[in-house]
Specification:
Chain lengths: 493, 493
């Protein structure tokens, strides 16, 4: 979901560097096209003139903004093949395009046009430029506006591209998967089906157990070795003991902090930073090294447990373990408490990306994530995040009061009996999985569980290291999507 | 739909007079309760603290307003019986409650709780009081906000009343019927089924023929007697001839106008006023006299044709015919051109009600009604209302640009295959009927056509003069609704 922007400093430099390699720039229908022929899929970067405020004709948003999208027709059976539309989530759209290779692989097989649309207020789709995160400008950042953006973009691009009769399938991972679900239930007139990978539509709607997330992070490490979980828990306990003794200098040296902590707030921040590394290791527990939301080795949870159980000093082991996440390059000589991790309204982290503001605002408004660790069902120190704490924070930071229950009202929560044509895929290694739909609900609301899968592994491109379970999942997804496309053609003919 | 507020001066005095007969006022859960024991159903008038802006946490609407609703539990099997929820449309909610007796009759049979919710910006549900129609305050008047109001109100009232497991059926007539459709497709998690009476969901979404409406008005008169249509057409032609001759004083005397017309604009206004009377006569062609959107005799179209064909002077006959609508009391000695009819973004009229502003704004934004008469397929003078004219008017009046296609994108237009549990009822006499769904689309998207029915006759209370077709329709509606309620219980248990 979110704890992803940690090494965005590094990552974006790489990505943007790539994205800026513009081989050609041309004008078509008021949109700037940029070719990126150096990328695996031949995406063109375009901009769509988008309505600023779909829900108020008389607001400050009485205008348009430039919404970025990536498009490739290299596999498209022009005017006939389906449209595969990625409902961009909380980040630069290139990052999702570069890490969702399954979609283009599938497009190659099914003759599809591929579009990756960037979510408003992220990447280069900033409605008010650098003022986008001011108050009240930030107010137009909502799930509903984002969905309406996609609905309008699909409708107009279909007309523009002569694709009026081409069925549209939406894809998304994580929050993007939630958006895919919402697109199908909100706009079935536009979208024939949705592949929602690792979409925690329940836990982010305030449904379920606030302890689930960190419990499932813990379970990943326990599965490798129960001693690993115990070691992590033990290390946090040692830290806690030192903190109670106010032995701050020992804490500094144990964790290689750049500055000596001096307050309970600093210790809280350190605990958050440490816990967050485990969140990321669990989410990104892929069977090969990746450069998505930071750089990770293959099987990072296994690597973490090896590190954790290597050596005799638990705190040093903990420091080195979180280093897999925070210091993958080995360049850092010390950890800066407040720059490596930013606490926000999402207890799984908002990170340091230039869009962390946007995600924080969403977590303060519609997206409900009061996840807590309790040191009983998980290996972390007890860190509460109650609805009251959320309110307090959000009022202070954004002058907004969250509205618990709204997402459930607006997007149905678990009451999905009127929905159809959605695949809910989840990886058992992913701490977000149990916040989503894990059981098939009807012949057209299909849960696909991937035992060896981390966070939306199925959306990633094929890899020799892929476990059998994700190969099977992708095959099933591919078949179902082909059926949806076929049925949609039949219906409209 | 709209051409209804003509005699609102009279009507509202009567209604509000009734509504103000407050027998008891008490406080419960911050809401004021008022009993109206003098009314047929024992409605209590209450207010719900409603979110002002559901779609922007940081707008001028960062607060609440008092939304009015009427409620009666006199027939409710408390905690078990269903909830019948009227999705209020463009007017004072008492007017709909007093003219939709079928809902309470059905509640008596099915043990239902009945709620009539007032639409924001109408009646007493003015979010910003007397400033509600200023710019930008009017900006929070949208279909989406109204639907979210109802979703939230239902959810919270269910909790408050111990009705959590009670299935909800929504009802609505005209624009209210459109809202019922939208509630079911948007919030099937909250609403088990919808009876949408006379809901022109296609024609108001820009789908269909712009000539249909006035053609169908004409057909009603033609059905009574083709000579009637010819007489109306002939009278308009005479008026046109006089106007071309600039014989304004003869026009004044023929039509008993209070002031002598002096410009083409005055003549245009007169044509609009005259045409509008026929719209109202056709819409309200009930088999007994009514006091809904003005006072009407029984079978007003028949009465109109008798008047039209009585006497030798066509223009005098036309004057007397529109008098059925404008001068039902016989008190007017002359017609004031600009006070009896107000031209607006709805060519079927916005009338003179204190909420005509609200409907005009809606017709300038989401609701598309570019209906035209052409003097070929209808009996009226050719009066265009193009999308360009609409734009021009709306920009000047409200500083907004309409967004054609938006309603179709947002609420699916004719692409209803993903919808379920909706009855689309229409009366063949109603000029709105052919702007709606006339054919059953699936086993749970059922069209009920009522040959002798005018505008949502089926929602009105039983009357000895009811034609057989509406009795049959109500019986069928009643059976289907009982099935929905039963199925919803089964599903949630």
């Amino acid at each position: 979901m979110a704890a992803r922007w940690l090494f965005l400093g590094f990552m974006l430099l790489i990505l943007v560097g790539k994205a800026e390699t513009r081989l050609s720039v041309e004008k078509l229908n008021n949109e700037v096209i940029t070719s990126h022929r150096d990328l695996a899929a031949d995406f063109k970067e375009m901009y769509f003139k988008q309505i600023l405020d779909h829900f108020n004709y008389n607001s400050l948003g009485n205008g348009t903004y430039d919404q970025r999208y990536l498009i490739t027709d290299q596999y498209w059976k022009k005017g006939y093949g389906p449209i595969f539309f990625y409902t961009g989530n909380e980040g630069d759209i290139w990052e999702f395009a570069l890490n969702s290779g399954f979609i283009t692989e599938l497009a190659a097989v099914q003759g599809a046009l591929v579009i990756f649309a960037e979510h408003r207020y992220y990447g280069k789709s900033l409605p008010f430029g650098k003022d986008s995160f001011n108050i009240p400008e930030v107010g137009l950042l909502t799930v509903e506006q984002a969905l309406a953006d996609y609905a309008l973009m699909i409708t107009e691009l279909k007309n523009e591209l002569g694709a009026q009769t081409c069925p549209v399938i939406v894809f998304g991972g994580s929050y993007g998967g939630m958006l895919s679900v919402y697109m199908r239930i909100r706009y079935p007139n536009i979208v024939a089906g949705a592949l929602a990978a690792s979409a925690p539509i329940l836990s982010t709607a305030g449904l379920g157990d606030s302890a689930q997330f960190f419990q499932d992070v813990t379970a990943d490490f326990q599965k490798i070795n129960p001693a690993c979980r115990d070691a992590v828990k033990g290390a946090f306990q040692k830290l806690n003991t030192l903190a109670q003794q106010k032995d701050y200098s020992r804490i500094q040296s144990a964790f290689s902090l750049c500055k000596t902590p001096s307050t309970p707030k600093d210790i809280h921040q350190l605990n958050g930073l440490l816990r967050n590394a485990f969140t990321m290791l669990a989410m990104l527990d892929y069977p090969y090294s990746t450069h998505f939301m930071g750089s990770m080795p293959a099987f990072p949870v296994k690597v973490a447990c090896e590190t954790m159980l290597n050596g005799t000093d638990l705190m040093l082991a903990l420091r080195d373990t979180v280093g897999i996440m925070y210091n993958s390059t080995g360049q850092l000589t010390c950890y800066d408490l407040y720059s490596l991790y930013v606490e926000c309204a999402d207890p799984t982290g908002c990170g340091l990306g230039f869009n962390s503001n946007a995600w924080d605002y969403q977590a303060c408004t519609e997206i409900e994530m009061c996840f807590e660790s309790n040191n009983v069902t998980d290996m972390f120190p007890a860190m509460t995040f109650t609805e009251q704490q959320r309110e307090q924070y959000c009022l202070k930071r954004w002058r907004v009061l969250p509205r618990p229950g709204w997402l459930k009202t607006q997007f149905w929560g678990q009451d999905l009996s009127a929905a159809s044509n959605i695949i809910f895929s989840n990886g058992d290694l992913d701490p977000w999985a149990n916040g989503g739909i894990r059981k098939t609900l009807s012949p057209s609301l299909i849960a696909i569980n991937i035992p060896e899968g981390a966070h939306h592994l199925d959306l990633r491109e094929s890899n020799p290291a892929d476990p059998e379970s994700v190969i099977v999942a992708r095959k099933k997804e591919s078949e179902i999507i082909a059926q949806w496309v076929k049925a949609a053609r039949k219906e409209s003919s």
